[in-house]
Amino acid sequence: MAFNTIHQRNELLRFDGALPQVDAQGRATHWNAVLHRPSEQEDLYERLVETYQTLTAGGRQVGHLQVAGVEFCVYGNSQPFRIKIINRTNDNHDYFYIKRADASRVYGLELEHLLSPNRISYLVDGPTLVEEHIIGVPGDVFIQEPTRFGGALNEVRLSKEFVKFNERCFVRLLGDMRAYNFVVDVIHDFDQVQYRIRSIDFDQQSHEGRARIYLPQFYKENLPFVLFAQRVISTETVEQYKHEERALLRRRFKLSEAVIGDLLSVLSDDRISTPEQAAELAEGLGRLHGSDRFKGLQDMGGVLRAQLSVCLGV
User: Fold this and answer.
1) Is the pTM higher than 0.85?
2) Domains present along the chain, CATH in parentheses
3) Which pLDDT tens digit goes with each residue over 129-173?
4) At what angle do helices 155-172 and 235-255 cross, to 10 degrees?
5) Distance CA 222, CA 219 (A)
6) I need a surface site. Which of 27, 109, 141, 255 has the fewest CB within 10 A?
7) Are the CB atoms for 211 and 303 separated by under 8 Å?
8) Residue 231: C-alpha distances to residues 185, 196, 217, 226 (Å)
């Protein structure tokens, strides 16, 4: 199916008015519902539905879908639009996002798809990015009152998932994973609660020069998750969970080794950061790992290749 998200995003920006949105507790959010001219809205919304069908169903026509609302967020560098799609036959709804694209974000999405336990759908059309909605409660909201989102809090399982998430981000060099940049998906098992922490922002993939940027444990916004882990699991258990996650990462890498190799080759030729930041990160990771594998590297593709090699033994 042919579609033009560049044209769509330019049209979405031509809204006539905006209404600030609040959450379920009446608190202000970064989102504003936007209003478009009636003369343009029908055609625009029809093409938004087509884009959603391309994203989720490979372009196959799905009847009874319509746009139920468009919201705009001025916070952050991607300036996303959030599109609400509703099925008229059963009132079920879903969201997708139209954002301003950048190279780091696209590499981050691709590595998320290949190396994490999650699969993610997205489309790129020139400088425009279309992303599926990732289900979950924002980490900063969840940690304020975790029992509100899934019954009794299982601190050990939440801590285990945070340790594994922390390790995934570090191994693949995904930065800026503050609590508001990931969500917590609460999964009810037959006798207990499980958790899955998922990244929702990928623009800091292999960009910054400090190694600590890629470890969520060091962000003050994530301190409540760290305190849970320090209280309920031992250092030995943390190391066990880290080894378990690296084993899973190694398995995923092997399954997609050729694709990841091609991606890293492209990344090495691209400029998603400065040579100075890449060299700083290489030096920091070399000290952290006690390895010469990072010596002399000045591009983020080479640094990430070395990081995967040292951490996963691949």
Assistant:
1) yes
2) 5-102 (no CATH), 135-312 (1.10.1070)
3) 999 999 999 999 999 999 888 778 899 999 999 999 999 999 999
4) 50
5) 5
6) 27
7) no
8) 22, 20, 14, 9
